[in-house]
Design a protein that fits this description.
Blueprint (H helix, E strand, L loop, with lengths): L8 H27 L6 E8 L10 E4 L2 E11 L10 E8 L11 E6 L6 E5 L14 E4 L5 H30 L3 H8 L1 H21 L5 H7 L2 H21 L3 H8 L2 H22 L2 H8 L1 H23 L2 H4 L7
Length: 325
């Protein structure tokens, strides 16, 4: 059977649909490539990291948080003593942001979102530093370790759980009436006692406010205040008078004559006490000589005996004394 060489409408319609689909796919690929900067001209920079946990080949490279390239390759370096340069990153950067990346720019790993993919983020430089060119190295800095943060957060959550258990135990004890606070919450008798105490305190405060009582007069009557003010004024005048060096009190405070006289009297008394203690003079002998003390004691005893005998028989001693003329 001979096939017809002319196109039917159905065949033409299928061809148009396929052509339209290819056109749509091409536009989509172009837009996606434009959005991902796949068709932009790029240059390569180098970065060294101790580790690149979560960062993959083809991962995003950001400049000031904006997509500006991708990670072309991640290579291990030979093992050496420098553990800060374990990995070599080759970065494919768009030429359009070349002026933003300079010698003083810093690169670090960054998480897109709290738990998202890793990206290499570069901070813009300043005009005083030159722009990096093909093959230059981007200075890196340590990034925040989210695993350590999560570990600390886990510890904090554990502490919070323990604190919640303690609070639950405390509130349970209060509800059961344990301890002073529990008694305050659950004991009706204690509540009544506190209520009574507050009532009495209120009554006492009301009595204090009574203007006829002592406390009320102290609070409301200015007479006591005026008297106290007068006393303070008189005291102030007295202090001024004393400080003026006039009168006995002022002279006692300021004149050194009395002090010198007292010092002289003290020295004289000290010399007198030394003389008495050393047994010099009559008074010293009286204090230190036992023989003189015994003689004086005997003399006093004999005089007492004579006086007693005179009282008994005064005529015995008075004979011949009285003469009659």
């Amino acid at each position: 059977m001979k096939r017809s060489s002319t196109l039917t409408w159905d065949q033409l319609r299928v061809g148009l649909v396929i052509l339209l689909a290819v056109l749509i796919i091409g536009v989509a690929i172009y837009k996606l490539g434009q959005a991902a900067n796949l068709f932009a001209k790029r240059y390569e920079l180098i970065a060294y990291l101790p580790d690149a946990n979560g960062l993959r080949q083809g991962g995003a490279v950001l400049v000031a948080g904006q997509l500006a390239g991708s990670v072309k390759s991640i290579e291990f370096l030979p093992v050496d003593a420098d553990t800060t340069r374990n990995l070599k990153l080759t970065l494919a950067i768009d030429e359009g942001v070349k002026e933003q990346i300079r010698r003083d720019s810093k690169g670090k790993l960054r998480t897109l979102g709290l738990l998202g993919d890793k990206a290499f983020d570069i901070t813009p430089g300043t005009p005083k530093a030159r722009a990096l060119v093909e093959g230059d190295t981007v200075t890196t800095m340590l990034a925040l370790d989210y695993e350590a943060v999560i570990a600390q957060a886990s510890s904090a959550v554990t502490d919070m759980v323990a604190l919640t258990k303690d609070l639950r135990a405390i509130t349970g004890g209060i509800v059961r009436g344990e301890g002073s606070l529990g008694q305050l919450v659950t004991n009706r008798a204690l509540y009544d006692q506190l209520n009574g105490t507050l009532t009495r305190a209120n009554t006492m405060l009301a009595s204090f406010q009574n203007p006829n009582g002592t406390v009320g007069k102290m609070l409301n009557d200015p007479t006591l205040y005026n008297r106290l003010t007068g006393v303070i004024g008189s005291t102030d005048s007295l202090v001024i008078a004393i400080n003026s060096s006039k009168g006995t009190a002022g002279l006692l405070l300021r004149d050194s004559t009395l002090y010198r006289n007292l010092v002289g009297i003290t020295k004289g008394a000290d010399s007198l006490m030394k003389s008495l203690s050393s047994g010099q003079g009559t008074a010293g002998k009286l204090l230190t000589d036992q023989t003189l003390y015994d003689q004086l004691n005997k003399l006093v005893t004999d005089l007492s005996a004579i006086l007693a005998d005179i009282r008994k028989d005064p005529s015995k001693y008075m004979k011949g004394v009285i003469k009659v003329f």
